[in-house]
Specification:
The chain is of the alpha/beta class and 352 residues long. The chain is 27% helix and 24% strand. The protein has eleven helices and 15 strands. 38% of the residues are buried. It binds 4-methylsulfanyl-2-ureido-butyric acid.
């Protein structure tokens, strides 16, 4: 039996600081109704889709900061969206700031959920790759304080829903190859990603002209290299003076873009996604069981970067390998016989 999922991108234009949750839910509902009318099973909304992108400000008042997080999902203002989802029989993905009390402690996450066609939350994800900085940096045109306002999530779970295997990522996660591969290793067939990406990146303004290109590059590569659909959805346009990219799109497991938005406002784009198309890639070029070489990838988990181990301690300087006894003897023999050109790695070992 074919496994088609009719997916709607539910791109949002800017959300102003003064807009209430209820006003935003009204916009989300309008898109959901239209997606349903067009036969969609699922609508995908952006990251932090209920408020303006507040990490652009250094907020000192704790009450003001907390006003951007949801303590309950669904909560009083978002219940209407869940009711609509259940009434229409359409699922959704949405991102929001989560304030969770766990073991008596307050935690804040940049979170997304998948809601199934009966209006029930079937999956939750907390953003792993938090971009930006922790402290106020007044030299920037605007802040990017995700490292201050959120704790990092710890994994990339996948969920059985809509007849397939679904995963989630949030904005900056989409730039990291590990995001897709972690889910690819669990057989993911569709990755849902919401984002808020300013055109201007203060530490690297030379990348500004490439922001849309990079958006497509990472999602197309992630899709192809893992044989999965990828749905990327922007909160776009000029929000509180900051220009954010659009470029929302649906990427097939081939890496091809099959649907995309053309504006920077509230907009739908749709695709009929055949989940079985994933198999054509998962069973051939990217048959992980056949072709991956984990023994060659040990640094991926042992290290955080070139100079730090995964636990943050410095990488120990490499000790030169001892010459292989057989090869060393062979090299010495070659020298004795006056060989004009010993193999280059023999020569290298001799010079150490
Ligand atoms: N929200 C979010 O994660 N935004 C980041 C901006 C980082 S600046 C390159 C992003 O990766 O789009």
């Amino acid at each position: 039996m074919p496994r088609f999922v009719n997916v709607a991108i539910g791109q949002l234009g800017p959300i102003a600081k003064h807009e209430t949750r209820s006003q935003v839910v009204q916009r989300l509902s309008t898109l959901m109704i239209q997606a349903h009318q067009m036969g969609c099973d699922l609508i995908v909304y952006p990251e932090l889709a209920l408020t303006t992108f507040f990490p652009r400000w250094y907020i000192e008042d704790p009450a003001e900061l907390d006003s951007y997080y949801e303590r309950k999902m669904p909560g009083p203002e978002t219940q209407a969206l869940f009711d609509l989802s259940r009434g229409l029989g359409i699922g959704f993905y949405i991102g929001y700031g989560e304030l969770a009390v766990e073991d008596g402690c307050t935690h804040r996450y940049n979170t997304s959920i998948i809601v199934d066609k009966s209006g029930l939350i079937v999956g939750k994800y907390r953003k792993v790759h938090l971009p930006g900085h922790q402290d106020h940096e007044p030299w920037r045109k605007f802040q990017h304080l995700e490292k201050r306002y959120f704790e990092a999530g710890k994994d990339f779970p996948v969920f059985q829903v809509f007849g397939g295997v679904f995963g989630m990522a949030i904005c900056n996660d989409r730039r990291w190859t590990e995001t897709y591969r972690e889910m690819g290793m669990q057989g993911v067939e569709m990755v849902l990603i919401g984002y808020n990406t300013p055109v201007h990146n203060p530490p690297a303004p030379e990348h500004d002209d490439l922001s849309l290109f990079h958006n497509q590059l990472v999602m197309q590569a992630g899709a192809y290299q893992n044989g999965t659909w990828v749905v990327g959805v922007a909160k776009a346009g000029i929000e509180e003076g900051v220009d954010q990219i659009g470029g929302s799109c649906i990427v097939a497991p081939s890496g091809e873009i099959v649907a995309s938005c053309t504006t920077k406002g509230d907009e739908l784009a749709l695709a009929r996604c055949d989940l079985d198309l994933c198999n054509s890639f998962k069973e051939t070029t990217f048959n992980f069981d056949l072709h991956r070489q984990p023994e060659a990838y040990s640094r991926h988990v042992a290290r955080k970067g070139p100079t730090l181990m995964a636990d943050g301690t410095p990488v120990k300087p490499a000790t030169p390998p001892a010459p292989h006894p057989v090869l060393a003897g062979y090299a010495a023999g070659a020298r004795e016989q006056g060989s004009a050109s010993p193999a280059p790695n023999f020569a290298k070992r001799k010079s150490r």
